[in-house]
Write a structure and sequence with these properties.
elongated
């Protein structure tokens, strides 16, 4: 309404367009920083895969440690076989197709075309890479034991199927759901890793390498994306999701570090690197260490991928 001096006065309680506009999102890290972080993670995952294969497949100490895991798993296989069978089914080809269609379907329903394409690339690329390097790049010379003596089983295809599906889901899920997705992905990946070890389908190093392959592809997907490729400012403001993202990433990291340290110590102890004797059977120590390795790599992977995908997918 006009004031006495001719100026327009806004009535009390009224709101302008500026008042109705959503708050400006919190600025994230520069895009160049996100790309550098993605490249660093991808390079670390590639080198980690190569190092795990060299240490555990091509050396006597590595093969001896995992042979102890396998022999001990044989003692408990009749007990664990029935409960872990449903978990192992999740790594079969039908579930690979189901996971692929589910992830891509979520992306298409949300009309995130670029995110859907990248999620598909992560699933297909991870699984193809696992099969190619397992059958055509890496090799195994049987130094100890008889199980698959000269057949390379690294990386695990079953673990790759599960880990890739959940990592790809991080790319298409709404921003506010990514922390919960990371927790679920770490839990399911860990469960598959434990199942393959307990039922003697794979060695611990196969599990670790499979997860690293998935981390490699997901990190490269984050590097390849333009700014604002998945999230929009009106969907989930950065300030609302920053806290849960940090909390989940830290919690998974805190869980991963001691598990990884204990796994390495268990392997060293079984090889006599930490003293002449153990209070428990060396096979049980190696067995426990192998399971801890599966849990550690699953937690660490999603602790890294969660903030990386959040940064790469942030709104413009």
């Amino acid at each position: 309404m006009p004031a006495t001096d001719g100026r327009m006065v806004r009535p009390a309680g009224s709101r302008t367009g500026a008042d109705l506009a959503p708050p400006a999102p919190t600025r994230g890290a520069p895009r160049s920083t996100t790309r550098l972080a993605g490249l660093t993670v991808a390079l670390a995952a590639a080198l980690g895969t190569l190092l795990v294969w060299w240490a555990m497949v091509t050396t006597w100490p590595g093969q001896r440690v995992e042979e102890r895991v396998f022999v001990t798993a044989d003692l408990f296989q009749d007990v664990v076989n029935r409960p872990v069978e449903p978990v192992l089914l999740l790594g079969s080809p039908p579930w690979l197709v189901t996971g692929f269609l589910a992830v891509c379907g979520i992306g298409l329903v949300r009309r995130r075309w670029g995110a859907t394409a990248l999620a598909a690339a992560v699933i297909l690329g991870s699984n193809l890479t696992t099969q190619v390097i397992k059958d055509g790049v890496f090799y195994r010379t049987g130094l100890v034991g008889e199980w698959n003596r000269d057949i390379n089983t690294l990386p695990s295809g079953h673990v790759t199927v599960v880990a890739a599906a959940w990592a790809a889901l991080l790319l298409v899920a709404p921003r506010r759901w990514r922390p919960a997705t990371a927790v679920a992905g770490a839990a399911v990946t860990c469960a598959m890793g434990l199942a393959t070890i307990a039922d003697r389908w794979h060695r611990p190093s196969d599990v670790v390498a499979a997860v690293l392959v998935v981390v490699l592809w997901t990190a490269l997907a984050c590097v390849a994306t333009p700014a604002g490729w998945a999230d929009r400012p009106e969907d989930d403001p950065l300030g609302r999701t920053a806290g849960p993202t940090r909390l989940v990433a830290v919690a998974l990291g805190v869980a991963a570090v001691p598990a990884a340290v204990l796994s390495v110590l268990a392997a060293a102890a079984t090889e006599g690197r930490l003293g002449s004797g153990l209070p428990w059977d060396a096979g049980l120590v190696a067995y426990a260490g192998g399971h801890l390795a599966a849990c550690a790599v699953a937690a660490a992977a999603f602790a890294v991928l969660l903030p990386l995908t959040q940064a790469a997918a942030r709104p413009r």
